[in-house]
């Protein structure tokens, strides 16, 4: 099967957020131009041997909009010289960095989807998260994106935050849903090692809301979306019809994609890989004409079947039994029959026509359902 999607990682930020565990670096005094040259070189080497027609491209980070106009121009023109992007072309952005000049530049190079890291509309919570933007920046950024002709605008919102009440989250959700946007991604906070939040928590300086409140926030989210112009299509993602994230569906449908840049992950030819993290190590590897790999693993057939289940079950439509059979030459019942029956009895999954999918209760405790599909063989 021809790979038709690519992810590009820009590991620079104007400020490091307290909760973030992605591969990122404070942009000041970083070798940004050397990094971009290396990134384009990695992609150029790839295009000599592989498909250059893509259906989806996603540029994430870090924060790609932390780059200045000249750097963005170098990146965008380089991408367009190497790839023909026929469908969804997404760029992550911070609201206070998405000036009209920048978004107009993105649009001129074919970017048609902006994913904005809003997280919350409450100033006190933005401060706790280490965000650089203010509430009014969110409105300005959405207007700039719309005025520039961006077709799809998505906002990220977080819940289960320190000091966040149910009312706080509902207020942010209401404000987001009233805006001229097409998509909302909403995630509960997970304390990840090596983050400022994690260190604060270990020292007793951070108190999280209890798990029940987190579940209540998620249920509120689903119910409010149900009665709005948005629809839920994945555990954490909600869209107006025609604005679902086609790139992220590649991950959830367990399909292959390229990953470019420091710390980027990819899945090609049955192999999952991760590039080296430190920017200087990545640049050095590219300059030495080395493949900048940190890890590569070939999932076993059992691991592939597990992935098919816990990734596919994230989608509202669920996992296709026919596709599973075609992909693995065996039925879901043969592999997971007992697990499926147990989860059905607990009313965590349901089966309809060709699909197995999560119930509402199953979505609330999704991780528990996914773990049930680990074969331990």
TrEMBL record:
GO cellular component term, pick one: cytoplasm
Keyword vocabulary terms for this entry: 4Fe-4S, Chaperone, Cytoplasm, Heme, Iron, Iron-sulfur, Metal-binding, S-adenosyl-L-methionine
Subcellular location: Cytoplasm
Domain of life: Bacteria
SMART domains in alphabetical order: Elp3
Radical SAM core domain mapped to chain residues: 1-231
GO molecular function: 4 iron, 4 sulfur cluster binding; coproporphyrinogen oxidase activity; metal ion binding
Xref: SUPFAM superfamilies: Radical SAM enzymes (SSF102114)
Chief place of localization: cytoplasm
GO terms classed as biological process: porphyrin-containing compound biosynthetic process
InterPro entries per UniProt: Aldolase_TIM, Coproporphyrinogen-III_oxidase, Elp3/MiaA/NifB-like_rSAM, HemN_C, HemW-like, rSAM, rSAM_sf
Function description: Probably acts as a heme chaperone, transferring heme to an unknown acceptor. Binds one molecule of heme per monomer, possibly covalently. Binds 1 [4Fe-4S] cluster. The cluster is coordinated with 3 cysteines and an exchangeable S-adenosyl-L-methionine.
Family affiliation: Belongs to the anaerobic coproporphyrinogen-III oxidase family. HemW subfamily.
Protein name as annotated: Heme chaperone HemW
Annotated source species: Staphylococcus pasteuri_A
Record lineage: Bacteria, Bacillati, Bacillota, Bacilli, Bacillales
Gene transcribed to yield this protein: hemW
């Amino acid at each position: 099967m021809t790979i038709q999607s690519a992810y590009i990682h820009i590991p620079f930020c104007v400020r490091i957020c307290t909760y973030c565990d992605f591969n990122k670096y404070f942009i000041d005094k970083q070798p940004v131009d050397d990094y971009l040259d290396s990134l384009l070189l990695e992609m150029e080497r790839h295009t000599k041997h592989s498909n250059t027609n893509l259906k989806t491209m996603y540029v994430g980070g870090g924060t790609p909009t932390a780059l200045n106009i000249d750097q963005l121009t170098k990146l965008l023109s380089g991408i367009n010289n190497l790839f023909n992007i026929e469908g969804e072309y997404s760029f992550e952005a911070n609201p206070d960095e998405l000036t009209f000049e920048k978004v107009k530049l993105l649009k001129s190079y074919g970017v048609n989807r902006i994913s904005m890291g809003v997280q919350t509309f409450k100033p006190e919570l933005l401060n706790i998260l280490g965000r650089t933007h203010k509430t009014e920046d969110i409105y300005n950024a959405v207007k700039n994106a719309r005025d520039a002709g961006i077709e799809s605008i998505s906002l990220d919102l977080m819940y289960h935050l320190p000091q966040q009440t149910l009312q706080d989250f509902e207020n942010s959700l209401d404000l987001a849903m009233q805006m001229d946007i097409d998509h909302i991604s909403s995630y509960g906070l997970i304390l990840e090692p090596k983050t400022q939040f994690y260190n604060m928590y270990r020292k007793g300086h951070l108190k999280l809301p209890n798990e029940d409140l987190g579940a209540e926030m998620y249920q509120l989210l689903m119910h409010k979306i149900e009665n709005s112009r948005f629809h839920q299509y994945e555990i954490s993602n909600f869209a107006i019809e025609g604005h679902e994230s086609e790139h992220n569906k590649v991950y959830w449908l367990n399909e292959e994609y390229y990953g470019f840049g420091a710390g980027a992950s990819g899945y090609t030819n049955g192999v999952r890989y991760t590039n080296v993290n430190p920017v200087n190590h990545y640049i050095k590897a590219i300059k030495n004409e080395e493949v900048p790999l940190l890890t590569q693993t070939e999932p076993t057939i059992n691991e592939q079947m597990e992935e098919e289940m816990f990734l596919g079950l994230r989608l509202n439509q669920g996992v296709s039994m026919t596709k599973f059979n075609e992909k693995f030459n065996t039925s879901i019942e043969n592999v997971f029959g007992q697990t499926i029956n147990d989860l059905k009895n607990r009313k965590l999954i349901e089966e309809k026509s060709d699909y197995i999918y999560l119930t509402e209760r199953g979505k609330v405790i999704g991780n528990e359902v996914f773990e049930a599909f680990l074969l331990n063989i």
